[in-house]
């Protein structure tokens, strides 16, 4: 492996509990170098899944958190000034394409469309990346793959991806795992007993039913892991759930009361 991407190697197996056939499907997608899009609500395991797949496939993983101020140069690279004049520095996308890493663009809808289009020539059969400022055409390494993720539903229409972008990808839908699986995840991640993990999942199920009825989003697996970690450190369950589950989710006093009540029915 090229030294420039060696630091991005995932050396330890990340804990990932498969919820369906996503591991096999992703492996098949990687085998044909299909660019992949992971869709699902916040905190449901998308990032963990990519880390796991990068480890399983033995490929370095370069992650970029996208935002609306991001420019094409932030992805592709730029000339930097140093004592000896100017020097080209590859951006994360170029680094991944050149040396054969998996490039993961997190929350890609946040990026402006003129930024997102730089991935187009890399995600069709050309598999090239033109570095216009440098006058170089990078041919993607055979191990290179692009993965993007986003939370459908949060963004306005303005922020949706263009069809010409979407249609370059295969997609996997992620959702909060079903109760038994989520219980296992929370218990494994935090060390709380199966009993406590089950109660946390119960609270989450109640809250998820309130989505669209006063809550924009339900309690994520991530939040349950937070709550479980506090309980594992001997924080009282009620206080842990308030801090990690209820307070971050909503400012609405009635909704907080309803969620607090749900917590007390379990703990
Ligand atoms: N299937 C799973 N196996 C193992 N851990 C999981 C799984 N799903 C969720 N988790 C736990 O939930 C946490 C949040 O997951 P992750 O960071 O992957 O969410 P995400 O979908 O990338 O969210 P966001 O869209 O906000 O980035 C993880 O750190 C992990 O503890
Ligand atoms: Mg993520």
From TrEMBL:
Domain CbbQ/NirQ/NorQ C-terminal: 182-265
Keyword Nucleotide-binding on entry: yes
One Gene Ontology molecular-function label: ATP hydrolysis activity
Name of the molecule in the record: ATPase AAA
Similarity remark: Belongs to the CbbQ/NirQ/NorQ/GpvN family.
Domain ATPase dynein-related AAA: 36-169
Superkingdom classification of source: Bacteria
Lineage: Bacteria, Pseudomonadati, Pseudomonadota, Gammaproteobacteria, Chromatiales
Keywords: ATP-binding, Nucleotide-binding
């Amino acid at each position: 492996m090229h030294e420039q991407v060696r630091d991005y190697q995932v050396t330890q197996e990340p804990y990932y509990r498969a919820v369906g056939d996503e591991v096999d499907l992703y492996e098949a997608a990687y085998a044909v170098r299909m660019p992949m899009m992971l869709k699902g609500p916040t905190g449901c395991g998308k990032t963990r899944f990519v880390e796991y797949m990068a480890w399983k496939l033995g490929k370095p993983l370069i992650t970029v958190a996208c935002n609306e101020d991001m420019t094409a140069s932030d992805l592709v690279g730029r000339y930097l000034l140093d004592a000896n004049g100017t020097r080209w520095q590859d951006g994360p996308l170029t680094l991944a394409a050149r040396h054969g890493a998996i490039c993961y663009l997190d929350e890609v809808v946040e990026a402006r469309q003129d930024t997102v289009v730089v991935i187009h020539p890399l995600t069709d059969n050309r598999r090239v990346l033109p570095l216009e400022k440098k006058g170089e055409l990078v041919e993607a390494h055979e191990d290179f793959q692009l993965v993007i993720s986003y939370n459908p539903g949060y963004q306005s229409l303005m922020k949706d991806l263009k069809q010409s972008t979407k249609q370059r990808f295969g997609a996997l839908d992620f959702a909060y795992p079903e109760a038994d699986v989520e219980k296992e995840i929370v218990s494994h991640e935090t060390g709380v007993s199966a009993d406590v993990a089950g109660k946390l999942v119960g609270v989450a199920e109640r809250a998820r039913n309130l989505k669209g009825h006063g809550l924009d989003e339900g309690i994520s697996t991530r939040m349950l892991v937070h709550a479980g970690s506090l309980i594992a450190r001997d924080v009282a369950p009620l206080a842990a759930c308030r801090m990690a589950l209820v307070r971050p989710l909503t400012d609405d006093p009635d909704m907080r009361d309803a969620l607090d009540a749900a917590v007390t029915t379990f703990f």
